[in-house]
Every structure is written in structure tokens, then in C-alpha cells.
Amino acid sequence: MEVGTITAILDTTLAVIFTWVGYKTSALIYKYTPYSYPNARIRAMEARLFTEHRFGELAESKNLENFVVNLEDSDYKAYLANLGELNAETIERALDVALADTYSLMLKIMPKRVNAFFGLLLEGWDVRNITSVVKAKMMGEVARDYVVELGTMVEKVKAMAEAKTLEEILVILEGTEYEGPYQKLLLKEISLEEFETELYRLYYTKLLDYATSKKGEERVILEEFVRLSIDRLNVLTILRGKAKGLSAEKIRPSVIEGGTLKGRALETLMNVEDLSMALAELDSTKYGPLLRENREALETGDLGALEKAFDRFIMERMNELTRFYPLSVAVALNYILLKEREIRKLKAIAKLLEDGIRAEKIKEIVGEMA
């Protein structure tokens, strides 16, 4: 073979190699570089999350004035600076604004290819607010007491809470995806429970559609987060139904499609006779350890323990994914869950201080929260 031919082959081979290396490098840059800044910023925010020791110190505040003063060295200072009337409710609303800003920050700093997911997560608060307001209105309660100032429809929800009639709420919801289910509720085509399920079905369908539209590890992370959340909702719905002695036919309309528990497994769970048999059926699933950890409470019908365990399970799973995928959307999801937990605990401390509960009891209650 002539030297010129050999040189040409080598040049071609090198060109192919360099092209491949360039392509792979570009792919890695596209995949990971957009997460470098947001994840570094989130890691810095994680370092400022409260430890259990800090919650213990806050529990010893004795009153709400001291509680607010003790938060002056935290990120919550600006939110608590001008409360006007100081009580647990105004503090809760200020903390809700802080959480809303956390979601907004994720929308702003996360890569465009995933940031819309955090907008969808905010819509979950729309569903909670709408169902809470509608329930309150139908039960003759003060609806505005149930409004959490989080979500994408806060002003509409406030207007719903102040509506004079149920028909007025339909006008407020006109043009939204919630108009149809609410109209069915007014026409008594569906029950209040079915209305709530329909709203959550719309919400989780959007989340799952978005997650499954992604590729690679982004799809893996988002899809697992959504499916675990659906499992949590379904399992608690079924167990509450069985605790009340409901049949599978009564429970089935309240089950949301899309979880990891599906098909025959879900049907079997719904068709067992009572709560004990449902717990036994779940014992063979991946959620078995959660049941065994809370067996004593569950046997007395205390499903709150399982709800907390589910929350911890999802947080632990997202934390695992942050270690497996350190430059990914898992870091932001994990932080959101941690921030929500921190704010839940702060709200609880504020309410317990207002009620005059002693410090040791507050520490006990807050320590048990997910």
C-alpha cells in the first residue's frame, strides 16, 4: 500500500475520531453544563436549611415575638419584617410567600428544558386551594380561612372565597380547565369527592405527560417523582376507604392512574375486605418497610403515620437520586421537598407557641413531622 494511501486512511480515521469526540463532548456540555450554576446555588441554600437543633431552639421561643426575633438571622427575615398584626395566621401567610418565592426561583434558574415542571408543581397548590374553597363553601364555612397563597391562581382563588354564590365561582373558573368538573358538580353529576379526584387526575396527568416527554435521566427522575406521588395518594385513599368499610366499587373512582402500583396489584388492594387485609397486601410491595415501621399506629387506624412515612420515603428517594445524578433536576426537587418540610415545621412551631404549648412538647411534635 502506498504511503499516500496510508496517510489518507489515517487522516480519515483521525477525522472520524475527532468528530466523535467533539460530538460526545458537545453532548456532555449540553447535558450537564446548564445545571452547574443552579445546582451550585441550590447547594448553598441547602446549607442554610434548619437543623433539628435549630428547630429545638425555636421551640423554646416562649412566644411569637421571640419566635420572629429568632428568625432574624435567617432567609425568612424579609418575609416577617412587616407583618402588622402578629399571630400564627400572619406568620403562616408570610412563610407561604417564602415558599412561593422558592418555586419562582426554580422556574428562573433551572434549565429551560425542565423549568416548566416547577410551574406545574405550583399548579398542585391551585388544586388544593380550589377544592378547599369549594368544600368550605358547600359546608357553610369561612372559605378564606382555607386559602393558601401559593399557586398560579391565587387571585382567582381569593375571589372564589369571597363569592356570594356557588354559581359565581363557575364564572370565576370560566376558561380554566377546572370549569368543566365544577360545572358537573353544580349539576350534581358528580359528588364533591369525585370533583376533587377529577382535579387531581387532571393535575397528575399533566405532570406525568411532561415527565414522560423528557429523555434520559431527566425522564427517569421526573417520572419517578410523579409516580411515587401518585402511589402515595392512591395508597392513602384506598386505606382510608378500607378503614371506613368501603367496597372496591366505592373506592375505584377516587384512584388516580399512573402510579407504580397498578393493574392487578391495585385491584387486589381495593378488593380486600378490610384495613388489616389491605395492609397485609401492601406488605409484599416496595412499601412494605413503611408499613412495618408504623405497624402499631396503622393497626389502630392512624394513617397519619403512614402519610408522614410516605413523605420521608419520597424525600429519601430524591436524595438518593441527587447522589446518583449530582448534576440534574433531582437536586432542585430534593431542595423543594426539604424547603416544604422546613416551612411545615416552622408553621407548626408558630401555632403551638400561640396555643401556649410548652417547649418540650413542641419539640416532640415537630420532631415527629415528616
Query: Which architecture of the largest domain does the CATH hierarchy give at level 2?
Result: Up-down Bundle
Poorly predicted tracts of residues? 18-30
CATH class type of the largest domain: Mainly Alpha
* CATH fold assignment of the largest domain: V-type ATP synthase subunit C fold
Q: pLDDT average, as an integer?
A: 89
Helical percentage: over 70%
Q: Please count the helical segments.
A: 19
Percent of residues in beta strands? under 5%
The class by helix and strand makeup works out as mainly alpha
Biggest sheet record: none
Number of domains: 3
Q: How far apart, in Å, are the first and last alpha carbons?
A: 73 Å
Rg of Cα set: 25 Å
Shape assignment: globular
Number of strands: 0
Q: Which sequence of SSEs, written as H and E, runs from N to C? A: HHHHHHHHHHHHHHHHHHH
Any overview of this molecule?
By secondary structure, this protein is mainly α. The chain folds into three domains: 38-110 and 341-370, ATP synthase (C/AC39) subunit, domain 3 (Topoisomerase I, Chain A, domain 4); 113-193; 214-328, V-type ATP synthase subunit C fold. It is built from 19 helices and no strands. Mean pLDDT is 89; it is low at 18-30.
